[in-house]
Amino acid sequence: MTSHEAHLESGQHAPSSDRLRQVLVAVGAVVALVGSFIGSGAAGGTPIAEAAGGALSADATLLAPAGGAFSIWSVIYLGLVAYAIWQFLPAQRADDRQRRLGYPVLLTLVLNAAWILSVQAGLLALSAVVIVLLLVALCWAYSRAIATRGLGRRSLIGTLLVDGTLGLYLGWVSVATAANLTSYLQFAGFTGFGWSPEAWGITIVAVAGLVGVLVAVWSRGSVAPMLSLAWGLVWIDVSRVSGSLPSRPVAMAALVAAVVVVVVTLVARIVSARRARPTAVAR
């Protein structure tokens, strides 16, 4: 019996808990997808940028990215739906990696929908709490993805759907969390302890960049988190340069942070590849 046949056979005789996990993840993806339609305004809901009194619009705060940034959600949702279908296949039912990833991913899907509903309801404070919980859940899910890279059969599809999708998800939600918290604090009347809005904007952008650097080192140069985090930072730059709430210092800080995240990620990837390369045997 080949290893592939053994893998399929193990999937056929997997316990019912594996099937339950697959079903729940698939249902969670549907719920998140429905939530995205509501959040886009396509299903009769209010677009996120207009909900909650416009608190999350492109010009609501100095940390709000321009509207074009949110197109990345289409890529993330496509990846999540594709992952939900792929993990539902019999060959993935008893896969050790999917067993460890299933419920963390499910939690992110549920929290994603909860965040959209909280914004739609105008509950900005609740949305801030939910998006922080979503970020924590994504850190949990992505850490599981990194820790389980050596489990099961490696494939390009699996790498793209697991590492790629979760990485993009984590990087973008890191930026979205910063923007959401800033919106909540501003609308709650936070005065900034005497700091100017621009000083706070630069500080939070720097923190977002630091998160990107830490993820790059931790993941040994994973590209997906870098792409979405840098994407979000660049769109903050665009919003502060061309929007109705301009700020050259925040725009420059966002652009510098994006460049730093990209450079550190590439360096970490090169270093990781060199360390993994087998030492040549001297002749």
TrEMBL record:
Report keywords, A-Z. Answer: Membrane, Transmembrane, Transmembrane helix
Q: Where in the cell is it found?
A: Membrane
Which sequence ranges are marked TM in the entry? Answer: 23-43, 63-89, 101-117, 123-143, 155-179, 199-219, 249-268
Keyword presence, Manganese:
no
- GO CC terms, sorted: membrane
Q: Tell me what topology the record assigns in the membrane.
A: Multi-pass membrane protein
User: Transmembrane helix among the record's keywords?
Assistant: yes
Q: Which Gene3D superfamilies match?
A: TspO/MBR protein
Enumerate the PANTHER family for this protein: SI:CH211-161H7.5-RELATED, XK-RELATED PROTEIN
Task: Tell me the protein family, please.
Answer: Belongs to the TspO/BZRP family.
Protein name (Swiss-Prot/TrEMBL):
Tryptophan-rich sensory protein
Q: What is the lineage of its organism?
A: Bacteria, Bacillati, Actinomycetota, Actinomycetes, Micrococcales
